[in-house]
């Protein structure tokens, strides 16, 4: 009986299969965690994009407000704050600011704890 015939091939095969199963389970678990973190990062990116889009709208509205007040000043209006268009623009800005505050309300630590 030679060296190779004395080796317990069935035991080695069983040990290899067990190791492969454990390795695959660990790899699946790691993939699930990575997928969840990627999803959370995607959600955070979407949230940041929404905030940026709202801030851009605020910037445009403030520009419109300034243009409207400037136009009213040239027409000898005593109080531009009483103008209907000025009031509408100010209301729009307040609404956008509230939406931004709502998106920024959730602290970063609470958003990242979801993945841990």
Explain this structure to me?
With 116 residues, the protein is mostly helical. The chain has one domain. Helix 1 packs antiparallel against helix 2. The longest helix has 66 residues. It is rod-shaped. The protein starts with 8 loop residues before the first helix and ends with a helix. The mean pLDDT is 85.
Topology:
Elements (H helix, E strand, L loop, with lengths): L8 H66 L9 H22 L2 H5 L4
Short précis:
The protein has 116 residues and is mainly α.
Shape, per Cα inertia axes? rod-shaped
Secondary structure category: mainly alpha
Number of strands: 0
Supply Rg: 31 Å
Specify the oligomeric state.
single chain
The first-to-last residue Cα distance is 56 Å
pLDDT < 50 runs, ≥5 residues: none
Mean pLDDT: 85
């Amino acid at each position: 009986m030679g060296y190779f015939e004395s080796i317990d091939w069935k035991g080695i095969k069983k040990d290899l299969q067990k190791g492969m199963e454990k390795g695959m389970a660990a790899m699946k678990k790691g993939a699930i965690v990575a997928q969840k973190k990627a999803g959370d990062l995607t959600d955070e990116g979407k949230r940041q994009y929404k905030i940026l889009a709202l801030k851009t709208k605020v910037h445009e509205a403030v520009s419109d407000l300034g243009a409207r007040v400037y136009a009213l000043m040239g027409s000898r209006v005593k109080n531009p704050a009483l103008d209907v268009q000025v009031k509408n623009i100010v209301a729009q800005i307040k609404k956008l600011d509230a939406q931004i505050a709502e998106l920024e309300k959730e602290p970063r630590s609470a958003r990242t704890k979801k993945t841990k």
